[in-house]
Design goal:
about 375 residues, 8-stranded antiparallel sheet, 25 strands, mainly beta, about 35% strand, 2 helices
Length: about 375
């Protein structure tokens, strides 16, 4: 068998540089980006992998799976050991492998990048770079994958990666992107790629048209929650659709004391007048909350605390049922006529799980 010999010029220098000043330690990733950003390329937002250089051992689509990577030791597939991530073949003759991903939102501003090499050890990526571009229109996806497309710009410069660990970096960039390209030097494996940022929504031309003001697609963000005990992210509440199982919502631990409540605070994608509220307990059948209530405040540019005196009740205590969309409008709502709000607080009584929290209204 003929073996290709690589010259020193072809072999990439993969020496890991000292930790850059923009690095975020693994234990601070969630708190750094979780309070004002979302993952712009999560598959739960209908993001998609458009194309890639190679995916011989494991598919690139795993990169944008919102669930944490898992390990299945001893499991083999026709190409080799099973890995929950993206893995390319060895001895890449090109400088790097790459994958192009379309954001699941109209566009976004990137605030951070996470590369998780969980369970890739000895076959992990040695380094990465991230590039972005802004391209809209019917031909956008076909244009950005062309070899001669020259509108890519740097989002994150060359960063070394370690084996089987979460690593992240802050990004200072106000430019909007619709697509990103992850470059992996020179080859290897990455479990997850997270692109933390803020949505730049496209609203209807008419301010009188009702929109889902709370939706992650419209720039809605969950700023805080009383807790997330079961690892079910509070950010799931604002995702599109109703999910596929109980794992894609927000669930709190069982409370044992009298008078306990749990809560989340949501910043709307735009200041608006509330017309309808939906609390969805899809798939929560034996662990749905007994009741709910909703408060709102007009606190633009601020992050109100749960006990802020400015909260106004817009939905009084309502009994909830299992696996159901509960919709409230008209006379069910209080203090909404002629009032504009920027934040809403969903309270569940006393605890339990909610799949989606939707707030519909018009912008002001």
């Amino acid at each position: 068998m003929e073996v290709q010999l690589l010259s020193p010029e072809v072999i990439q220098d993969t020496t890991v540089a000292p930790t850059p000043s923009d690095a975020v330690s693994a234990d601070l990733i969630d708190t750094t980006f979780g309070s004002n950003c979302i993952d712009l390329i999560s598959s739960s937002l209908d993001s998609s992998v458009i194309t890639f250089s190679d995916e011989w051992f494991a598919p690139a689509s795993n990169l944008i799976n919102p669930k944490p990577p898992i390990r299945r030791p001893g499991v083999f597939v026709p190409t080799g050991a099973w890995y929950d991530g993206w893995e390319t073949r060895r001895h890449n003759p090109e400088p790097y492998d790459w994958v192009v991903i379309k954001l699941g939102v109209a566009s976004g501003r990137v605030k951070g990048v996470e590369i998780d090499t969980a369970f890739f050890d000895g076959n992990h990526a040695e380094a990465v770079e991230v590039q972005g571009c802004f391209k809209v229109g019917e031909d956008a996806d076909t244009e950005v994958v062309k070899k001669d497309y020259d509108r890519w710009r740097q989002v994150l410069g060359h960063r070394g990666c370690g084996a089987t660990q979460r690593q992240a970096w802050k990004v200072e960039d106000e430019s909007e992107v619709t697509h990103v390209r992850l470059c992996m030097f020179p080859d290897g494996g990455i479990a997850r790629f997270r692109l933390y940022g803020q949505v730049v929504p496209v609203f209807p031309t008419s301010v009188d048209q009702e929109v889902e003001l709370s939706s992650a697609l419209m720039g809605g963000v969950v700023l805080g929650a009383s807790e997330e005990h079961f690892g079910s992210s509070k950010n799931n509440l604002l995702l599109p659709g109703r999910g596929v199982d109980m794992g894609g919502g927000w669930e709190t631990r069982r409370s044992r004391g009298q008078g306990h409540v749990d809560w989340v605070i949501v910043r709307l994608g735009a200041r608006g007048m509330v017309k309808r509220i939906v609390v969805d307990t899809a798939f929560y059948r034996g662990n749905f909350p007994q009741a709910t209530k909703v408060d709102a405040c007009d606190c633009e540019g601020e992050t109100p605390k749960a006990d802020d005196a400015r909260w106004k009740e817009v939905l009084g205590v309502q009994k909830l049922g299992p696996d159901k969309e509960h919709e409230y409008a008209g006379s069910s709502l209080n203090s909404v006529a002629g009032a504009a709000y920027t934040h809403l607080k969903l309270t569940i009584i006393p605890d339990g799980g909610v799949k989606r929290f939707r707030v519909f209204g018009t912008r002001v």
